[in-house]
Design goal:
By secondary structure, the protein is an alpha+beta fold. The protein has helices at residues 3-14, 33-39, 57-71, 118-137, and strands at 18-23, 28-31, 80-85, 91-103, 106-116.
């Protein structure tokens, strides 16, 4: 392996965020250890995981619609809040940022960065509640 390839692999493998590469059907083509930890399985089991496995019914419908848009050339430019379900069914919020994976100028998949978001989301909800309560008191 050449030095740049080794460096890139080390960066991806040591990332605290999940790096999850999916094909245009939502199937895993690559996932780092952080994705396996988030889902709650050993790394060797994450290869059979699909995005549909971690979503609830509404999320699966939204993701299927999203994949249609991706095939038409549109990806999300911003982070998206996703309710992620682990192998035991526990739900947690994550932020997902995607980038198109291109081969010969054609989108063949999505590179997703997945960042846990539960704590920050809770703090934001508490702040919104406090602001709303203060507005009512005025």
């Amino acid at each position: 392996m050449t030095e740049p390839e080794s460096l890139h692999r080390d960066i991806v493998e040591s990332s605290p965020d999940g790096i999850w590469v999916l094909d245009l059907d939502g199937r895993t083509t690559y996932a780092n250890d952080a994705v396996a930890r988030l889902y709650g399985v050993p790394r060797e089991e994450v290869g059979s995981l699909t995005m549909f496995d971690v979503l609830d019914e509404a999320g699966r419908e939204q993701y299927a619609e999203h994949l249609v848009r991706v095939r038409e050339g549109t990806t999300d430019d911003d982070e998206v809040e996703v309710l992620f379900h682990d192998v035991a069914g526990r739900a947690s919020w994550v932020l997902v940022r995607e980038s198109p994976l291109l081969r010969d100028a054609e989108v063949v998949g999505l590179v997703n960065r997945i960042h846990p978001y539960d704590e920050r989301r809770q703090v934001l909800a508490e702040l919104r509640d406090e602001v709303a309560q203060n507005a009512l008191l005025r």
